[in-house]
Amino acid sequence: MERAFAEGGFQQLQQMPVEYELCVSLHWLSKLRWIAGAGVLAGTWIAQRVFESGIQALPLYAIGVSILAYNLLFSRWLTQIQCDLTGISARTRTLARVQVAADWLAMTTLVHYSGGIESPVILYFFFHTTLSAILLSPGDAYRFTLLAIGLVGATAGLELLGIIPHHGIEGFLPVPLYNSGHYVAGLLFFFSSTALVVVYLATRTTRRLREREAEMVRLGQELHRTLDRLGVLYDSSQVVSATLELQEVLDRLTRSTAEAMDVKGCSIRLLHGTSTELCLASTYGLSEAYLQKGCVLADQNPLAQQVLQGEVVVVPDVATDPRLQYAAEASAEGIRTTLTAPLIGKSGPLGIIRVYCSRAACFTDEDTRFLRAMANQGSIAIENAMAYEAIQNLEEAKRKFVLLVTHELRSPIGVVHSLLKTLSGGYAGDLSDVQADMVQRALRRNEFLQTLIDDLLDVAASKAGLRRSTAMQPIDLAMVVRRVFARYTITAAEKGIDLQLDAAEDSSAIVNGNEEELDRAVANLLSNAVKYTPEGGMVRVSLKCQSGTARLAIRDSGIGIPEQAIPRLFEEFYRAPNAREQVKQGTGLGLVITKEIVSRHNGTIRVSSEVEKGTTFTVILPLFSAGPPAVPVR
Amino acid sequence: MAQKRILIVDDDPDLVLATRLVLESAGYAVDEASDGESGLAHMRQIRPDLVLMDVMMAQPLDGYYTTQQIADDPALSQIPIVMVSSITGSEYAARFPTNQLLSIREFVSKPIDPEQLLEKIKRYLK
Fold first, then answer.
1. Peptide bond into A17 cis (omega under 30)
2. Contacts with A365 (C-beta within 8 Å, 6 or more apart), sequence order
3. Considering only CB atoms, which residues of chain A are within 8 Å of chain B?
4. Closest by alpha carbon to A367, among A262, A240, A218?
């Protein structure tokens, strides 16, 4: 059936089932004829028993036998014909006609030898005419019916006129009827009219049935195809949406569309930014030479304009259509028709998608709908990819900005440092005490500026989310703590502070994180503790592991933090009033940075304090486990 | 012993001033050039004993490209180069190609400490 479809034409389809049925029916008819033949023989034998010598059995037996005989011939002939759906040869039609004609002759002879117009067998003609109406074309059916009427009429007429002998069945009828002109005429009239009416009704019904059948087949085919296309549409939209890379999306879209629509090629042109240029963004199935074509100006191209306004446009003949800008190249490529659909996103038209076919009259309404559907799906995917690209560009721009600022800010500070160092080193001449002192002060402030910039940029980078992709791996926190601790022993000793580390020599606490950052965080806290503890005080650093977490506590006996300052402790630039008073140097960024680092490591930081008694900072980090990584808190 | 000449190639005049003072007080003769090209020209005219080269000048990586050219010139390739950069430890460092053999003796990062600088120069002038 499919192939019949492909050959095109609804007419052909209309004929197909008929011919297939005809073929099948002929086989069936042949089988039926065996029964008929046998029936004639059996009927004759019974009639002989009933009517004894009143019936001329011999001719009747002969007819029965010949029916069987020619049926044998027919069935031989039929075995050479296979019934399939690809088409029926004229031979089968001929066979059908021949069979019906043979049957007709047999019937007529049977009627003649069983009483002519008196024979009840006449009624079997109706059976035959109905069958012919079902099996043959309406034309043939009528013809054969008329033939039947003619044969019967001829038989009756000739018998009536005495030209041919009458073979009545004695004892069957009380009086012969064959010689009654009135009776013959009347019966013939009713016989003919009935036959014609029957054939008319039968052909009509059959035709309607055929039409319905064909319609159903057609609808079934259409449904199947629509389902197929929906399937393709779904599959390709899955494929297209599976990636966020713009070029990938475009390439997958052109390929899926070309494959789904079974066409030579497909191309996508996108509108460039704010300009009205439509430039090739992706192609499939087209040659390199064709791709050399330049961008098309949308407002100078009426076809593009039409499409961008939302229409799907067919170009039925590329060679002669004036709308096409590159008609010559297209023909050279072997393209005869094109179909173009708009790619329209939420923000407006994105471009156009075009499919190229090498056949003439390639695209149906269904194709138009399908391309539109593909274009709609494609537009969504394209917009998503574009948005993703924009986000990535933004991230990249942020990163570049931070790097640039870092460099630009650090550079002059470095130069100032060099100049001051040169000065203070006496390389530009000896300095008076006052001059030397002033240069020292300037140097210190400059160093502070350096630290401030570093910290600021750290916070800014962190807030801009640029630190997110810092490499995390299993780190031994205990080792980090010991290392940082070692760095502050001298400073603490200089200040007369009793610095103790409360962790076993070989203990370990494996957390998932970044070593540099952890170092920084611990150093910040320890530095604070030492800084804000006056001479003779004490700082305790302890590290414990319990219930899947590592707890780092840094306790000092320093100036403490006033209660009202605690909520603001982790704000940028915030320094508690007593801290500011007691220790001049401080950026106010240390704790912010520490908190950001702890947070990136999925941990928490707590503080408890009492003014002039001391402060305890506690950092809790989850221990590294080999299981699936925790979702980042951010 | 003849006075040693040092060529400073750097586009920052303040830095050049500071460095010049330091070097001259240690007894070196100092020449300066503000970019790679004029630095090369200068080197061909008056051969210095050591070059202090900034990596990033008006043209990014000017210092690096100039060093390549020095390496390619047989007349100049023997002169020791100390590169001064502000880029170590940052993203740009990744861009710096490390697969070439250059006559760079040392990387010094800004800001430069006068004592350290003098010490390094003394080492390479031996």
1. no
2. none
3. 403, 406-407, 410-411, 413-415, 417-419, 421-422, 425-428
4. A262
> A425 vs B115: CB contact, 8 Å cut-off?
yes
pLDDT for A438-452, tens place per residue?
999 999 889 888 888
What does the pLDDT read at residue A614? 92
CB contact (8 A) between residue B21 and residue A427: yes
Are the C-beta atoms of residues A544 and A502 closer than 8 Å to each other? Answer: no
pTM: 0.48
Query: What is chain A's mean pLDDT, rounded?
Result: 83
Q: Over chain B, what is the mean pLDDT? A: 80
The Cα of B116 is separated from the nearest Cα of chain A by a number of Å equal to 12
Minimum Cα–Cα distance from A425: chain B residue: B114
Report the distance separating Cα A40 and Cα A68, nearest Å. Answer: 10
CA–CA separation, A110 and A116 (whole Å): 8
Inter-chain contact B110–A414, Cβ cutoff 8 Å?
Answer: yes
Question: Which member of B21, B90, B110 has the closest CB to residue A428?
Answer: B21
* pLDDT of residue A87 exceeding 60: no
Q: A596-607 b/e with 16+ CB inside 10 Å = b?
A: bbbebbbbebee
Q: For residue range A570-582, what is the model confidence (pLDDT) as tens digits? A: 887 788 888 888 8
Chain B residues touching residue A418 (CB < 8 angstroms): 14-15, 18-19, 110-112
Distance CA A632, CA A515 (A): 17
CB burial readout A228-238, b (16+ within 10 A) else e = ebeebbeebbe
The SS3 assignment for B102 reads coil
Decide if pLDDT at A618 tops 70: yes
Q: What distance in Å separates the CA atoms of residue A2 and residue A224, rounded to the nearest whole number?
A: 11
Kindly state which CATH superfamily the domain A243-389 is placed in: GAF domain (3.30.450.40)
* CATH class of this structure's domain B5-124: alpha beta
Tell me the CA distances in angstroms from A131 to A15, A56, A69, A145, B16, one per residue in order: 18, 29, 21, 11, 116
What is the C-alpha separation between A484 and A501, in angstroms, rounded? 11
Distances (CA, A) of A398 to A402, A408, A409, B104: 6, 15, 16, 34
Mean per-residue pLDDT for B8-24? Answer: 90
State the Cα angle at A259 between A256 and A265, rounded to 5°: 95
Cα A4 from Cα A22, distance rounded (Å)? 17
**∠ Cα A591 A593 A595 (to 5°):** 65
More confident residue, A621 or B58: A621
Considering the domain delimited by A473-622, tell me its CATH architecture.
2-Layer Sandwich (3.30)
Q: Report d(CA A529, CA A517) in Å as an integer.
A: 19
Nearest to A415 by CA among B39, B54, B30, B89: B54
State whether A403 and B22 contact (CB < 8 Å).
no
Residues A349-387: b if buried by 16+ CB within 10 A, e if exposed: bbbbbbbbbeeeebbeeebbebbbebbbbbbbbbbbbbe
* pLDDT for position A355: 93
Q: What residue segments make up the domains of chain B, in order of their start?
A: 5-124
Q: What is the ipTM of this complex?
A: 0.78
Neighbours of A321 (CB within 10 A): 15
